[in-house]
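Proteins fold reproducibly. Look at a concrete instance:
___
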Amino acid sequence: MRNLLLIFLFIASATMNSQELNCTVVVNAQQTGDENLPVFKTMERQINEFINKTKWTDKTYLPQERINCSMFITIQDYSSDSFTGTIQVQSSRPVYGSSYGTPVYNYNDKDFSFRYLEFQNMIYNPSQFESNLISMLTFHVYMILGMDADSFAQNGGDEYFKQAQTILQYSQQGSFRGWELQDGQQTRFVLIDNVLSPTYKELRNVMYSYHIGALDLMHENPKLGKEKIANVLKQLEIMNRRRPNSYLLRVFFDSKADEIEQIFSGGPKVNIVEVQEMLNKVAPMHSSKWRNIKF
């Protein structure tokens, strides 16, 4: 009995300490011509450990509830301890009643410059700037957490988006691109500003209704699920009239365009004429995908 109790306590403890993310990190340095240098493998290993072993929230996640995500880092150039490149961040969440993982966050951050010394300590301070590498990684961690939470509860990602905004604010002192308004129209600054702005409230409504109210129902009634997705996406027309071709819409459809094309290209018939018209209005950058929708 005592041994059983110890086993139970061990399992309970492991569950309570379970981290939130199941993240695959890849560092690709082929463009440098020195991809076999040990520093790149060390960097990859350290970032993997940092992302997957840090406790990011005060909530308890069961092992099967961990968010599947990936960070693909492309190093384009380096000199001593200075590195430049890009980072592609993706995450997905399970669809109820299926084995399918639906993409939730897909962001290609092209302003990825940082300093890194091999084997340096990687520590996250939620209220203080440590390095641009830590800020970049943690900003996207909280975007992953926020987008995932928004897909399960109305505005469920508020606390995570606000932490991403805090990271943005204290990272402005580092003089790296992407953290300030003047850095362009497709930056981390614009992303988090749009997410938290009432001007773009429909996008967050769509994140919730698309997943909980439509996609999660498709295992029971595919036709009803498709009809609900079409109706949900119409909310984006309202936002698009207010802010045509906004950056936030581009980020959303970078995640969802392929999935939406597949949903409306098979299964029970729905009125695709209205769907195509609406999609061409709100996401003309994916018009080739919308033309592929045939029934």
About this structure: The two ends are 62 Å apart (CA to CA). Residues 1-16 have pLDDT under 50 and may be disordered. The chain has two domains: 2-196, 204-291. The longest strand covers residues 101-115.
